[in-house]
Amino acid sequence: MADCGLSSDDRRFLRDLHAAEKQLNEAFEQAQQGGALEQRVSAVYRRMYGKRAHRRD
Questions:
Q1: Residue 23 in contact with residue 44, Cβ under 8 Å?
Q2: Which among 4, 31, 42, 45 would be 20 to 30 A from 52, CA to CA?
Q3: Residue 44 CB neighbours (<10 A)
Q4: Do 44 and 27 meet the contact criterion of CB atoms below 8 Å apart?
Q5: Nearest to residue 21, comparing CAs of 55, 44, 54?
Q6: C-alpha angle with apex 9: 7 to 10, nearest 5 degrees?
Q7: CA-to-CA distance for 50 and 11, rounded, in angstroms?
Q8: C-alpha distances in angstroms, 1 versus 4, 10, 22, 24, 35?
Q9: pTM for the full model?
Q10: Environment class of residue 49 by beta-carbon count within 10 Å: exposed (0-12), middle (13-18) or buried (19+)?
Q11: How confident is the model over 4-56, as pLDDT tens digits?
Q12: Are the C-beta atoms of 30 and 40 separated by less than 8 Å?
């Protein structure tokens, strides 16, 4: 990633965001191949946020 005058925290955030987007895209692609979308997306969120993520109903 080019520096572009970004701080190291900004670059780290963008790398983490890119990784999260990639995981979500992979989950959606797998779901379109006959899987259960909700379960796959939930698994991605659990990997991203750990057990601390709370479901709000």
A1: yes
A2: 31
A3: 19
A4: yes
A5: 44
A6: 65
A7: 22
A8: 9, 11, 16, 21, 34
A9: 0.51
A10: exposed
A11: 889 999 999 999 999 998 988 887 777 666 657 777 777 887 888 776 545 45
A12: yes
